[in-house]
Amino acid sequence: MKLSLRPRTEPEVNMTSLIDVVFLLLIFFMVSTTFVKQSQINIRLPQADSSRVVPELPDQIDIMITEKGTFLVNGRELINNRPETIRNALQQVAAGRSKLPLTISADANAKHQHVVTAMDVAGRLGFTQISIATVNDPAE
Q1: DSSP 8-class letter at 91
Q2: Can you say how many angstroms the Cα of residue 46 is from the centroid of all Cα atoms in its chain?
Q3: Distance between CA atoms of 93 and 135, rounded to whole angstroms?
Q4: In angstroms, rounded to a whole number, what is the distance separating the alpha carbons of residues 24 and 46?
Q5: Which one of 20, 36, 100, 134 is most buried, by most CB atoms within 10 A?
Q6: 17 vs 1: CA distance, rounded Å
Q7: CA pair distance 52, 30, nearest whole angstrom
Q8: By three-state DSSP, how is residue 116 classified?
């Protein structure tokens, strides 16, 4: 008795019915969703009589010194690095409040003289809470 082997057929998954069900669910959720129209309230805001802007006084003063010797006081770059310019900028920012904390942040490659100049100018203006920002080396 000789048995013949039938070729095996690969099973197929018919995706058509699955796609139909997904589309029906999508249509169902789109139709059943309610859209709420929010009511609009007209608000009339008061007008200011003067356009004078009151300057906001800082809580602390930051002096940043770049590698090239550029000074920034509270983020504003100074035109040069002369002590008179630094003094004028500090007086303008501090507005006579020498009790504010002052932080000096210098680039690692900045000249030591620039840091000393900033400390000297701040000390002559009466600042007593002077700190120098440092960064810990993560390798240590």
Answers
A1: H
A2: 32
A3: 26
A4: 53
A5: 100
A6: 44
A7: 53
A8: helix
Residue 65 main-chain phi, psi, to 5 deg = -120, 120
* Structure tokens given for 94: 């501090």
61-132 sits in which CATH class?
alpha beta
State the pTM of this model: 0.55
Paired tokens of 45: 């805001």
Cβ partners under 8 Å of residue 97, min gap 6: 57
Rounded Cα distance, 10 and 47, in Å: 78
What tokens does 129 get?
């809470």
Give CA–CA dist 1/138, Å, rounded. Answer: 83
pLDDT at 61 over 60: yes
Which distant-in-sequence residues (6+ apart) come within 8 Å of 108 by Cβ? 67
Q: CB under 8 Å to 40, separation ≥6 — which residues?
A: none
- Sole residue written with tokens 């690692």: 108
Here the tokens at position 127 are: 């600042």
Question: Could you tell me what percent of the chain has a pLDDT over 70?
Answer: 78
Average pLDDT, the chain: 81
| pLDDT given for residue 3 in this prediction | 74
